[in-house]
Design goal:
The protein has seven helices and eight strands; from the N terminus they run ααααβαββββαβββα. By secondary structure, the chain is of the alpha+beta class. The protein has one domain: Cathepsin B, Chain A, CATH 3.90.70.30. It has a six-stranded antiparallel sheet, with helices on both faces. Strands 6-7 form a two-stranded antiparallel ribbon. Strand 6 and strand 7 form a beta hairpin. The longest helix has 25 residues. It is globular and about 45 Å long.
């Protein structure tokens, strides 16, 4: 449960009934210590829901919520590597369990689930929340529900959560799923590779001159 503590530090309640996606992403960004690149208030650089307005307006999210694809796009806009997986028949229960275990074993990755509450006998339907832990002996997943005015953090059977993700999202006609979030280091890696290449070229040129 390595990811639990960073998430617990940032655990917050969505401020609007339709903000589960925004609030979940805010929790993840702050837990992963992503710099928003601009102040939140005064000199503090911190993510809050109203700052996530680059892909779709906050007003639009307030009206209709975030779709699965919009969540992924918004996460990438904030500098995260977002690996999305739809819970189709091609994705096995074992694959989901492996993803949960991998995420919970590190503080550098957060797994977000998009599922139907109806399958869990909860009120409402489509919902986003991050996973804060996994108990292997009982095969239970800790859902850190951002709608804390409705439900506190709770343990859910992993197979049941898997079925909840398989439910069809009426807005897209596709099953729901899960998203793995990490800080995207691809740009840094490219810069480092370019710098190394320049060093090699420079060194080679210097040697040629000496000869």
């Amino acid at each position: 449960m390595a990811i639990y503590f960073p998430l617990a530090e940032q655990f917050t309640t969505q401020t609007e009934p339709s903000f589960c996606g925004l609030t979940t992403l805010v929790m993840c960004l702050n837990a992963l210590r992503v710099d928003p690149g601009r102040p939140w208030k005064s000199a503090w650089r911190w993510y809050s829901e109203e700052m996530l307005d680059c892909c779709t307006s906050v007003a639009a999210v307030k009206e209709k919520g975030l779709s699965f694809n919009e969540f992924v796009a918004l996460a990438r806009c904030q500098g995260l590597a977002a690996l999305e997986t739809r819970a189709t028949t091609e994705i096995s229960l074992e694959a989901f369990r492996a993803a949960v275990c991998a995420s919970c074993a590190t503080s550098a990755e957060v797994l977000v689930v998009n599922y139907s509450r109806k399958t869990l006998d909860q009120t409402g339907d489509g919902h986003f929340s991050p996973i804060g832990g996994y108990h292997a002996e009982s095969d239970l997943v800790l859902v850190m529900d951002v709608a804390r005015f409705k439900y506190p953090p709770h343990w859910v059977s992993l197979p049941l959560l898997y079925r909840a993700m398989q439910q069809i999202d009426a807005s897209s006609g596709l099953p729901r799923g899960f998203i793995s979030l990490r800080i995207d280091t691809s740009a840094d890696d490219a810069i480092a590779a370019a710098s190394l290449s320049n060093i090699v070229i420079s060194t080679t040129s210097s040697r040629a001159t000496i000869r």
